[in-house]
Amino acid sequence: MVFIIGSEAKNSRYGIVTSKKVGNAVYRNQAKRRLRTVIYQNIGEIKEKVDVVVIARPTIKQASWDQVNSDYRKVMRRAGLC
Q1: Edge-to-edge strands of the sheet including 50-56?
Q2: CA angle, residues 74, 13, 29, in degrees to nearest 5
Q3: What pLDDT band is residue 47 in, cutting at 50, 70 and 90?
Q4: Is-contact 5 48, C-beta < 8 A?
Q5: How is domain 2-78 classified at the architecture level of CATH?
């Protein structure tokens, strides 16, 4: 799940949330690392300055790297940011 709002800050800002529903600390940290890397790799494609909050769901444990990356890119395209 992703929440996006326009921002007047100098740069786009990102937040990542993982609840205990994702799993124990190992799985939560793994999910955050995956999402952080996906965001950093795709940060140059964002057209506008926005505030983005990404909420990890429990299914991220079974998702492959390519699936996480493609889902993030799909969400950003739907929002009109890429």
Answers
A1: 2-6, 50-56, 13-18
A2: 75
A3: confident
A4: no
A5: 2-Layer Sandwich (3.30)
Structure tokens at 19: 């609840």
Question: What single letter denotes the amino acid at residue 9?
Answer: A
In terms of C-beta density within 10 A (0-12 exposed, 13-18 middle, 19 or more buried), how is residue 44 classed? exposed
Q: Residue type at 58?
A: P
Angle subtended at Cα 26 by Cα 13 and Cα 39, rounded to the nearest 5 degrees = 25
Q: How far is Cα 50 from Cα 9, in angstroms, rounded to an integer?
A: 8
Return the bridge partners of 54, or none.
2, 16
pTM (2 d.p.)? 0.86
pLDDT at residue 81 greater than cutoff 90: no
pLDDT of residue 20: 95
Q: How confident is the model at residue 44 (pLDDT cuts 50, 70, 90)?
A: confident
